[in-house]
Amino acid sequence: MLIDLRSDTVTRPSAAMREAMARAEVGDDVYGDDPTVNALQAEAVRLSGKEAALFLPSGTQANLVALLSHCQRGDEYLVGQQAHNYKYEAGGAAVLGSIQPQPIEADADGTLPLAKLAAAIKPDDIHFARTRLLSLENTLGGRVLPQAYLQQAWRFTREHGLALHIDGARIFNAAVALDVPLKEIVQYCDTFTICLSKGLGAPVGSLLCGSEAFIQRALRWRKMTGGGLRQAGILAAAGLYALEHNVARLRDDHDNAKWLEQQLQSLGVEIAEPGAQTNVLYLRQPAELAARLGPWMRERGVLISSGPLTRILTHLDVNRQDLQKVVSLWRTFLQQHA
Ligand SMILES: *Cc1c(COP(=O)(O)O)cnc(C)c1O
Predict the structure, then answer these.
(1) What are the boundaries of each domain within the chain?
(2) What's the predicted TM-score (pTM) here?
(3) Strand, coil or helix: 269
(4) Cβ(8) to ligand 1 under 6 A?
(5) What is the CATH number of domain 15-246?
(6) Which of 57, 159, 248, 329 is at 20 to 30 A from 263, Cα to Cα?
(7) pLDDT digits (tens, 9 = 90+) for 63-86
């Protein structure tokens, strides 16, 4: 068995999750007839306190559909320079929605300073795009946005007539790290996404949550972008299973990331952002060493995206014993390459 630390997207559905998928009652979700999709969406509503939820194939599509539903052609969204829905989604909002991103440099804690946001809001003038939306990401690079910041950002958007979207691919990691229910985080946004296919362990799927009217608009964009699935209950069953069984255990991933950080630190590995809050670690390595580490580890059954800045993620398919093996291999590697 490979030990795969490249991402938490590599998690595979467990036997019990597959069983839930096999047993799922299904219908045609484009007609709104799939009972398992409806149950998953209802569960997202219950957990979030939002009015409605929509199941989509991927987090990228969920963000795209959210941006398309918030903004019109010629509108603009304020977003972090390192945000997934600015940098890692192939420019979808601009390409497909004619929506202009206004990237903002984040502070060290991952927050977008309100003064910078205020300065970036365009006046109502024919020269400018219309600033419509603030998009935040929680967690961002494994960091949890402070609740006090979210509250301020929420108030800020109310004062400036903006909507607030949270890319919450790993929002349950934030909730578990803060030890608060999801509701307490998402009370400070109009809309947010959840990825079921990362640390939660489902093979496919994301959720977009918001008001009833917003989700009605999103439904049309989901259809247009090819995200209307038919007997999707088989996939939604995995999501329901994940929400029931795989949320509280995210704490193990966080503990494992902390443990790994300490172990690597004691081997002399430089931690780029010490103090792992969730399941993400960043390491800095000399470029030449980093280039050798990846293939060396791969030969020994460990997958790491090794580079000058290396991102490592813990997840439900990697336990403490696996990590002990990784640390022991790493020690050997450093001894051999000293
Ligand atoms: C993974 C991720 C997404 C996109 O999810 P996919 O399902 O891979 O398309 C969006 N935002 C963030 C922050 C992510 O980590």
Answers:
(1) 15-246, 249-336
(2) 0.97
(3) coil
(4) no
(5) 3.40.640.10
(6) 248
(7) 999 999 999 999 999 999 999 999
